[in-house]
Amino acid sequence: MMTYKNKQIIFKSSMYVILIIASLFVLIPTLWMLSTALKPAAETMVTPPKWIPENITFDSFTGIWKNYPFKDYFINSTIIVAISTFVSIIFSALAGYGVTRFKFKGKGTFLTFLLITQMFPSIMLLIPFYQVLKSFNLIDTYWGLILVYISFSIPFCTWMMVGFFKGIPIELDEAARMDGCGRIRTFMQIILPLSLPGLASTAIYAMLLGWNEYMFAFILTNSESMRTLPVGIAELNGYYKIVWNDLMAASFLSSLPLIILFIFFQKYFISSLTAGSVKG
Description:
By secondary structure, this protein is mostly helical. The chain has a single domain, classed as MetI-like fold (Orthogonal Bundle), CATH 1.10.3720.10.
């Protein structure tokens, strides 16, 4: 008869096997992308394809900076995503704190409205956004894309912050008021430092949303100098041929900031999701 200890060992082993298989689904495309980027152009078309390049070269990584306006793409994405992420964090943190600490008429309706906005595909808003931005002369500008990305990220970021703020005892606010702290001081000096995991996960979500967005960046920008990374990388495809090593090098470099960001902030991201799920 199988003992409880043996059942636990089998269960944990099965979980590790599942996690390893799931990790391979993520790692294999990334490793293949890096392998292709390190190959010379002629070797990318060799059949059967080889995982390890015979002649490793970094020409693609240097060439995309020299032969394409990759630097402009990178700068544009960095500016747009940094500003939209910063603004989204501020507004979602304030909204989440207000919802969890104040009683006001229509609070449930407000939260429901935020949730409903996430149920519709974003393509439905493409034409309205274009018309609004065109009327304010914001087409092909940084602020046009920034406003669009802010409108997409704030609703879900607010929901994330509401879940996290609910896990912070309201007694801390009451104790701070007894010590003479106002609402703003209580929020800035007591609640906000405790909500760093939630802020980190919110920032990661907002950055991922803006960094990888293609459709609105493609429609709402006209000039080459305003293209973002997803649009710029897509335009590396030629009409008659695709330089696969350059394309993979650009894709790998564009994903590198997100990988580094998630490695450093993953503990905050996981703790925030856990707090929001069990302390509602």
